[in-house]
Fold each of these.
Amino acid sequence: MAKIKPSKGAPYARILGVGGYRPTRVVPNEVILEKIDSSDEWIRSRSGIETRHWAGPEETVAAMSIEASGKAIADAGIDAEQIGAVVVSTVSHFSQTPAVATEIADRLGTDKAAAFDISAGCAGFGYGLTLAKGMVVEGSAEYVLVIGVERLSDLTDLEDRATAFLFGDGAGAVIVGPSQEPAIGPTVWGSEGDKSETIKQTVPWDRFRIGDLGALPLDSEGNVKFPAITQEGQAVFRWAVYEMAKVAQQALDAAGISPEELDVFIPHQANVRIIDSMVKTLKLPEHVTVARDIRTTGNTSAASIPLAMERLLATGEAKSGDTALVIGFGAGLVYAATVVTLP
Ligand SMILES: CC(C)(COP(=O)(O)OP(=O)(O)OC[C@H]1O[C@@H](n2cnc3c(N)ncnc32)[C@H](O)[C@@H]1OP(=O)(O)O)[C@@H](O)C(=O)NCCC(=O)NCCS
């Protein structure tokens, strides 16, 4: 049997830089209340959300990604040509093919970097990070750009009082590259497809195209509603609170990090009550900085963790070298948690 040369990678991988982009339009709860029977007080107290950003026509998935990536590349102190792979996690890019990652890789000026999209809902950033770490350590790319980006306002039914207030738009990006020390811990991840009905698109594209009027949701004027994200809020809430705290603990254990050693906790920004409950269950000490970016960003799915990470570093609430636990969870249902050293 012929001998195949093994690929050579770095001993370890780390996040070297982070960048975020938030659309210019800030949408307060008052705007949401134009279409649903609710109140600012209810939305704030049940979800923690005060404002969110909605993308304008120019703030496409690619455009927001390029803005966030430019910042991450500068933060990492590398050139775009050094990027060997671009991984984009999104559920709201409307062209089925080609992947938006290839356009982003080209427009950023990479040297023909490998580029592909992944669909892992609100765990998408953790999935991308895990792939990137593998590529750097295995040697197929020296630097990997991981982007989480969403235009969830395109997939929100503003007449659905269970979801209208939840979602926002934005992009977060990190550069993952070589390290002499472990700086991205083992990932605890998985899927629970038996719960796939709890968060889903109201209507699959093929049925929407056929216009199966009998079964499709209609708007107040009798028109077929554009597909949107729908969820069983309480079921997802309970799953997140009970199951995800366990997964977060497993990620800490896998990395050999005690709650006392942790500096920062960056959970997916789905609901401030889920975040508070996880902090309590994990018994995180007072000194741990907890991301509550949801208040002004809403739930941006795959973008939520890198956006929150970027903001904590920008405001000085977290600093480079801090040890952070990140956990994403959502549609699938899927989840991914890991401990990282902040860039
Ligand atoms: C969506 C969410 C904020 C709703 O909060 P909740 O406390 O579960 O609310 P419920 O659906 O149980 O509804 C409670 C009550 O408020 C009412 N209500 C629902 N939406 C409302 C709204 N927008 N405004 C005012 N009242 C509302 C309900 O009718 C219900 O009234 P009732 O008690 O008289 O029947 C919450 O379920 C949630 O965050 N779920 C998880 C989301 C998540 O993690 N997603 C992750 C994947 S991306």
Amino acid sequence: MKMTGNTILVTGGTSGIGRALAEAFHDRGNRVIVTGRRQALLDQITAGRPGLIGMSLDLDDPASLPRLSAEMRARFPELNVLIANAGISRAEDMSAAGWDASDAEAIVETNILGVLRVTAAFLPALKKQPNATIIATSSNLAFVPRADFPTYCASKAFLHSWLQSLRHQLRRIPIEVLELTPPYVQTELTGAAQASDARAMPLAAYIAEVMQLLELRVHPRDEVLVERDRARRWAERDGRYEATFAAMNPN
Ligand SMILES: NC(=O)c1ccc[n+]([C@@H]2O[C@H](COP(=O)([O-])OP(=O)(O)OC[C@H]3O[C@@H](n4cnc5c(N)ncnc54)[C@H](OP(=O)(O)O)[C@@H]3O)[C@@H](O)[C@H]2O)c1
């Protein structure tokens, strides 16, 4: 993708990977619109950064995306990059007596339908631009699941498959479709403890590696895989799937 002079919309831009990507692209001379539900964070992130704009988006509120999309059409018709990054993660215990599908439904709503709806909302604008890119954040748990996060992992496997079809269908338009598949990264995705978990990749290191791969266009199959992603990505191909699954899901 073009690395500078873009107008970029980031979902899930109030914290973690989305916020860090928004700031990295802003630092490289892009206009960046960050979105999320937490208005106080939108205000904090954009303060003192001209060209970084905050707009409210709640993917669980059916009125919110049409509102954002109308405002984007009016204010930023030149939008040429969409980063569909918003996501939630919840553990689920299907062996528990009281298990129901409510967490699964919330994950499907945000992680799957949220990405599809945001793509549908902004595709018409992207199609008009000569250098358009869609980036969506899946996970390296798309390739080997952690069984205590069943719907989360499955939502990312869905995205991995869906993005291949989207990429193929858009090949003649052309809109570049990239997939970010982060490893375990220090953010608050599963709660505050994750942000300081020594087993997780530091956020700044993850973003620096991603920006370098994008800059150098080192993303075969349009998957932006950092070094830490690669073992899990290729576990099945390399005959390590059962061992990898067992290591991630001890008895
Ligand atoms: N960190 C990791 O280890 C890891 C690994 C692989 C993949 N990922 C993926 O990376 C993406 C970003 O996660 P993160 O780790 O950076 O965690 P995070 O800091 O919790 O970021 C999640 C973002 O999504 C937004 N969001 C959640 N629900 C939303 C909704 N209903 N409507 C609009 N925005 C919503 C949040 O904003 P508001 O709360 O302000 O709405 C927040 O900005 C996710 O898709 C996640 O699955 C993360």
Amino acid sequence: MTRAIVVGGGVAGPVAAMALQRAGIEATVHEAHAGPAGDVGAWLGVQVNGLDALRAIDAERAVAEVGFPTPVIEFRSWTGKVLGALPTSGPGGDVGLSMRRSDLYRAIHAEALRRGVTVRYGSRLVDARSTDSAVTAVFADGTVESADLLVGADGVRSAVRALVDPGGAAPRFVPVLNTAGYSEHVLPGAEVGRLTMVFGRRSFAGYLAAPSGGTWWFANPPLTREPSAGEVAATSDAEWRARLHDLHRGDRSPVLSLVEATPGPLRGWTTYDVPTARRWSAGRMVLIGDAAHATSPAAGQGSSLAVEDAVVLARCLRDLPLPTALQAYEGLRRQRAERVVAQGFRTSSAKSPPAVGRVVRDLLMPVVLRRRDPQAWVRAHSVDWDAPAVPA
Ligand SMILES: Cc1cc2nc3c(=O)[nH]c(=O)nc-3n(C[C@H](O)[C@H](O)[C@H](O)COP(=O)(O)OP(=O)(O)OC[C@H]3O[C@@H](n4cnc5c(N)ncnc54)[C@H](O)[C@@H]3O)c2cc1C
């Protein structure tokens, strides 16, 4: 195996290309858009397990430079009462980072380019065929390319997944909307890097004081019915503000003051996950990241799992022939990823329960969080790059 085509220049794609390069496989990344993803007001966490996987290929520093440590996640009820707190640290003592989504993408792309990875922007895969000896990819601009392997890192609406698993289930609607922003408001006494999650009476939200001043926030308005295509994107700034005002009015939290001090336009997006794909590979095509197992943002793990996949896949391809390498990769990844997706869906669905459920949660949560950290097993994952991969 000497050459791979990587479809998708999000998080998983460029990291896979860097990891494959370390494994002695030359990879070209094809990204449908004209550049790395822009900023839609979204920020995210790269967790210690994701940082560990980046460290395995010496790419952690590039990401760490655009983020800031976020050691604690605190949970509050709508009354302002603290329900508990969880650390973001892993077994090694380092902590999760928060960053703008666009900064993460830019940092990963810059690092891949610095290492000599070729990234073709504006290159959208439309078809691919796998034979015993090669895989051939067809792009919307008419370009045709062949390689030994095609890696589908093309996100939740993956075209490669449709080729690997024709007739597979469509992504599942997660019953919350997302909106987020960067507020100029500085909360008195706020601790930089302490992420506060608020179980509002009608909507879930979170906020985080940033080191540069100001406060980053997000909100998850519940939405039980799946909106029609374009409906959420067409929601205006004024409509988002009015909706957030209705949902958070009366909660004892700073969410509304943060929204007010956020330059517009506010935008929002729907969430879909992929609880299970029947196949992760077919012939010389394989899925990684959201294409294989998109998770709701509630898990806080989308980018971290994507990075883990990329590095583990490269390690398997370094040490094992096809198709054993792809089976070994799936064997190492599927159960873990699907468990995180299931946990994220449950968390998203439980964000705005009715009144009785709220009371029970507010009573139980402090007890549960004192006894058990439900995310500890996710963060404890580590990739041993030097250990030889073995067949599944
Ligand atoms: C708007 C938005 C906001 C998000 N906010 C958060 C958040 O706040 N917190 C969080 O944890 N996660 C968030 N996520 C999810 C997180 O970004 C993903 O879990 C993570 O990036 C997974 O990486 P990936 O590379 O698998 O997929 P992606 O990052 O989605 O990358 C896939 C890439 O493939 C490209 N592509 C798609 N089809 C083709 C094709 N046919 N040919 C070529 N290229 C193609 C896309 O343009 C994209 O660049 C968000 C995602 C989106 C889209």
